[in-house]
Write a structure and sequence with these properties.
By secondary structure, the protein is of the alpha/beta class. It has two domains: about 100 residues, Urease, subunit C, domain 1 (Roll), CATH 2.30.40.10; about 290 residues, Metal-dependent hydrolases (TIM Barrel, Alpha-Beta Barrel), CATH 3.20.20. Helices cover about 40% and strands about 25% of the residues. It has 16 helices and 19 strands. The strands form three sheets. Strands 5, 7, 8, 9, 10, 11, 12, 13 and 14 form a nine-stranded parallel sheet that branches. An eight-stranded mixed sheet has the order 3-2-1-4-15-16-17-18. Strand 16 and strand 17 form a beta hairpin. Helix 2 packs across helix 16 and helix 8 runs parallel beside helix 9. The protein is globular. Bound molecules: zinc ion.
Amino acid sequence: MFQPVICVERALLIENGIVVTMDLQRRVIPDGSVAIRGAAIEAVGKRTEVKRKFKPELTIDAEGGIITPGFVCAHTHLYGILLRGSSLRIHPPTDFTQNLQRIWWPVDEALTHEDAYSSALSASLEFLRTGTTTFADTYSGPNSIEGVLDHIARAVEEVGIRGVISFEATQRHNHEEGFRGLKENLRFIAKKQNQKVMSMISLHASFTISDELIKAVVESSSKTGATVTIHTSEGLGDLYHNLERYGKRTVERLNDLGLLGPKTVLAHCVNVNRDELELIRKSDTRVAHNPMSNMLNAVGVAPVTKMRNLGITVGLGNDGYIFDVFENMRTAFILHKIHHRDPRVMTPLEVLEMATINAAKSYGLGDAIGSIEVGKRADIVVIKPKLLPTPLSASSVYGHLVNTIDGDDVDTVLVDGEVVLQERRPTKVKMDKVSQISRRSASKLWRRLAKVKPQVDYIK
Ligand SMILES: [Zn+2]
């Protein structure tokens, strides 16, 4: 997917930090350095060794902090940020399906191209400020389908991070709507996006789409090589729908329609049984785990430990909820312990794998990003903890990343060797301006929502 680098080849060195490589050997290098030429990583190792061979034009001092690969969010909805803090005058949903019916679907219907742009701008900025350099986004909006991915792409490019973006095809209003969604994905795929903005095909969930649409997506994916993502057995409604209508469990139905495979990412997989996990394993299908969203929506706990034991590639996502990867990692770290009532379950390293290399692999990007290795894209995060109550060393760094560090500790971020966050400030956009654009859009959306769906009234 990635082309050879053609740009001014600036030599840049990041030094004086503990390098958490996330490479195959999971090397952690104390007093390490990362040498970057142009957009690619040229050397990784001990500071003294790297410095001997590499003459930088610019040096970034990690000041004894942590140098990690850029984090990868395996599943998000950038537009989710527009609902943050809103108060709803609605009958509170009592389960996940009602949550969609009473909150998210009315919001989807009220979204405009302006909302898509402004939310992509503010969400991308939140990702950048907290260390996520690549995300996989699914936008949903039945009244803003055609051309919307261009608006999201523009925002992602302005902030300077990477995004795999898509439109969520669904047939919850009518049959034709799903094919318009697919068409928008295919239009965007045909535009041959650059290495920062990539494309995929997104389906909402099996309970809002027909077999015909799934088959069309399978065919489109095989023709274009595009990754497909779909919400899978997030709430019980998805499972019940498939059992009642098709006599099959969700993953079973998707498998029978030819959707499973290494180019498919199933989001959630909360309500899946052993047989379904076996289908996922056999087909090398990928899973995006969203613990904070699953807790918020009270849908249950995905069997991530079983998935990992089976060798299934699981990436960590936020599902459009909290954009700080450290909060998401911390939640994944503790959620599975309480779920299994076993503190040995889910190590810090396992969590980090989900948030970096495994999420990258899920989208076919494992050879380009997700770890600090020679030849890979220079997507790097420099963390300078503001408070550190205990020593930071090669043996404590995984624990600190999961238990101590917050997004606010992210000091510098590079994407393709370009510094896009410096001393906690973005270099390509102004934070005030982004917030202003986002607030204006959210305020208009909340007002408009009351007109589109009078039963969902927002309290001003
Ligand atoms: Zn989602």
